[in-house]
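Quick review question:
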């Protein structure tokens, strides 16, 4: 059987995970709903997987203007995005601990706490219990920070990958083949497809990152300001892919990626500073709990 202290920490962590996965699932579903509301998210489950710029190009008439190609590309990639969001939302819900189970465990925890506090031979007091709970919440919050720090590094890697793929694009190919609708081969457009899918993946990661940052930003435990980072995913893919497919502006697309990299780095620096500060507060709580234990003994 777990000690009361272990039970408190375990239950607090499971609650944290439940709330986290619920937030991420809600963010994925809201993004889907927002796309449908704006007319961008018309989803056809039968549409081909892994769409390509070439497929979009061939679906249009040679006389169509380049903005129509951009719109077609955005529609095709939206299909891929919505598939991923549906998959992620279901995965988050599956990973989340069940609320009813946690509620039952909290009831049992309260009963066990009362029994131990009433037992004069046990070390537990109301004050010790409160400090232990506060310490568990602080540990849980530290884990949220740690998760976001690791996630920030993953997003940076994803953005650098997108940028590296974009470096293989060619301004001439983008301008001549896409804007003028000249016949081209799948091999020539493959770098654009790869870069676009990588960009789409990065945008999804940015969505989840800003969702967790919004949670931190509202917490009373946080001192840093994250308000300028709460819409970091907005229009990232659409703006970048428009520069690439409509205007042939490779440099502008790369600037958009660089701007996101700078924002993530800024967020990472702030997260690491908060982690250091919270660690000091956690150490103080640990000392307080140990003193109460010694005093009881």
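Suggested answer, residue by residue:
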């Amino acid at each position: 059987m777990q000690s009361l202290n272990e039970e408190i920490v375990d239950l607090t962590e499971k609650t944290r995970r439940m709330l986290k996965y619920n937030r991420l699932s809600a963010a994925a579903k809201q993004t889907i709903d927002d796309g449908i509301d704006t007319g961008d998210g018309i989803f056809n489950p039968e549409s081909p997987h892994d769409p390509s710029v070439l497929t979009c190009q061939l679906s249009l008439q040679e006389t169509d203007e380049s903005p129509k190609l951009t719109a077609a590309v955005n529609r095709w990639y939206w299909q891929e995005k919505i598939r991923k969001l549906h998959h992620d939302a279901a995965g988050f819900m599956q990973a989340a601990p069940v609320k009813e189970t946690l509620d039952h465990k909290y009831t049992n925890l309260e009963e066990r706490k009362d029994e131990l506090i009433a037992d004069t031979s046990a070390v537990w007091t109301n004050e010790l219990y409160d400090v232990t709970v506060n310490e568990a919440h602080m540990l849980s919050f530290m884990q949220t920070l740690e998760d976001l720090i690791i996630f920030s590094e993953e997003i940076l890697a994803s953005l650098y990958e997108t940028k590296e793929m974009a470096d293989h694009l060619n301004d001439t190919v983008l301008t001549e083949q896409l804007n003028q609708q000249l016949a081209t081969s799948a091999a020539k457009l493959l770098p654009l497809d790869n870069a676009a899918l990588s960009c789409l993946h990065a945008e999804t990661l940015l969505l989840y990152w800003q969702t967790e940052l919004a949670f931190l930003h509202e917490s009373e435990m946080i001192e840093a300001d994250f308000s300028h980072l709460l819409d970091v995913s907005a229009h990232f893919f659409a703006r970048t892919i428009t520069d690439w497919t409509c205007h042939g502006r490779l440099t502008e697309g790369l600037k958009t990626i660089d701007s996101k990299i700078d924002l993530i780095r800024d967020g990472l620096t702030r997260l690491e500073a908060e982690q250091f500060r919270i660690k000091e507060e956690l150490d103080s709580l640990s000392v307080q709990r140990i003193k109460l234990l010694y005093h009881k003994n």
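Why it works: Confidence is low (pLDDT under 50) at residues 180-184. Residues 4-296 form one domain.
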